[in-house]
Hints:
The protein is mainly alpha-helical. The chain has one helix spanning 2-17. The protein contains one helix and no strands.
Amino acid sequence: MEFDQLTSSIAQLCRLDL
């Protein structure tokens, strides 16, 4: 599913934000 990719992208963005 594309949900996994979306979650991964969001997780990476959140990490970059932190």
